[in-house]
Structure of NmrA family protein:
Amino acid sequence: MQYQKARPGPSPGGLGGLPAPRPLRHPLTPNRSILAEYPTPSQSAPPAAQSLIVLAGATGDLGHRIAQHLLQRGARVRALVRPGNTKPAVETLRQQGAEVVEVDFNDVGALTTACAGAACVVSAVSGLRDVIVDLQTRLLDAAVAAGVPRFIPSDYSIDFTKLPAGSNRNLDLRREFGQRLDGAPIQATSVLNGMFMDLLTGQAPVVLFKIRRVLYWGPTDQPLDFTAIADTAAFTAAAALDPTTPRYLRVAGAVATVRDLQATATAVTGRRFGLLRAGGLWLLQLMIKVTRRLAPAPDEVFPPWQGMQYLHNMFTGAPKLAPLDNARYPDIRWTPLREVLATAK
Ligand SMILES: NC(=O)c1ccc[n+]([C@@H]2O[C@H](COP(=O)([O-])OP(=O)(O)OC[C@H]3O[C@@H](n4cnc5c(N)ncnc54)[C@H](OP(=O)(O)O)[C@@H]3O)[C@@H](O)[C@H]2O)c1
């Protein structure tokens, strides 16, 4: 959709198309009946915490946690789910007080109705071009058509604004959607949080617990950004309820070099971890090319070569998050590395 930029300044009828208020009889003795027709800001807008937040991807790992944090903060949550979604998360959301709306994500009209009245649309969907660019564009068009003032896209990553195009397939899609978002008449905020810390005890081949090594490429002293999924969700919920957020918010629950990872893994397990240098960054780049050629898996969201692209990006230092907005919501406690690494058995 092509957007026309809103023209600044009052329209002939009054501010922003609203009818012009009738003059009061006397500035010090306002006419109560007239005041009642023109509610004060506190009457017209609910307190931020009670705002309605529309959430796409609420049945996913991150999205479900964002929903919990929004509800804990007193927000009203409308979770948009695909028709026929029978995941247990749907029932949990209902029981916790969220409004669950089944909607056809291909239908901008239906999405517009579903976005009505929201203070912010938050996306936590996961996927490739059809989701990150196409679906989110329809959701964005719907949010704009419904007059929603704010949009948080499903970014939640290292700082792709600093990465060269072509260096990370999944993050290129986010940059492409971000350009559409920047052209839309809506206030956008991306949450950038580095790598999910929880991946260090699972999918990410960095801290290798079985052989007690920290695997790395390139230098040992490159600071890397990690944030627990739960903390990313807590921060996103707070940001969704904060009408003053800037275009980007950057957070990292922990900033650690591979030497820090080694020391922390050693401390929490009580067993000595060593370092294992697989090679220089040029070798990792070569392995990405070879792996992508041999096992392209074009429909997989996170094929091995894409995970390698992510690690390559991080070890170059280019997408390092700075400055950090960790202190923006003082009630959020950042899970330290040692707590997450201690859960690995
Ligand atoms: N920084 C990191 O290290 C890191 C790691 C992992 C993920 N992430 C990011 O975090 C975000 C959320 O990821 P996640 O792990 O929570 O994902 P997830 O658990 O796979 O959940 C994905 C959500 O998107 C919805 N969805 C997917 N395709 C859809 C479609 N075509 N139409 C409607 N809904 C659709 C799913 O709905 P259904 O229930 O209908 O399937 C689900 O609610 C993504 O941006 C992801 O890239 C970041």
Observations:
- The pocket of NAP is lined by residues 57, 59-63, 82, 85, 87, 105, 124-127, 131, 135, 154, 156-157, 195-196, 199 (CB under 6 Å).
- The first strand starts at residue 52 and ends at 56.
